[in-house]
Design a protein that fits this description.
Helix content is about 70%, strand content about 0%. It is mostly helical. About 0% of the residues are buried.
């Protein structure tokens, strides 16, 4: 940027820029989590090789493990 095009941003302009960047970052993590959802079974199988067999003690635990793992992979 040249010197004549540079302008000082006000505080509200900085907040607007921060909001835009945070929205883009959250969307990127969500897209990454959705894409990794399709590979989460492979990763669980890969991790299970190290511990032997995986047991889920609650009905929703298997689903929550997949959700948490895909969120971590999305990040």
């Amino acid at each position: 940027m040249t010197e004549d095009k540079k302008q000082e941003m006000s505080f509200l302009d900085h907040l607007e820029e921060l909001r835009r960047r945070l929205i883009k970052a959250v969307l990127a993590v969500v897209v990454g989590a959705v894409v990794s959802w399709f590979f989460v079974d492979y990763v669980i199988d890969l991790l299970a090789k190290f511990v032997g067999q995986v047991y889920f003690t609650a009905p929703a635990e298997a689903f929550m493990v997949r959700v948490k793992l895909s969120a971590i992979m999305g990040i």
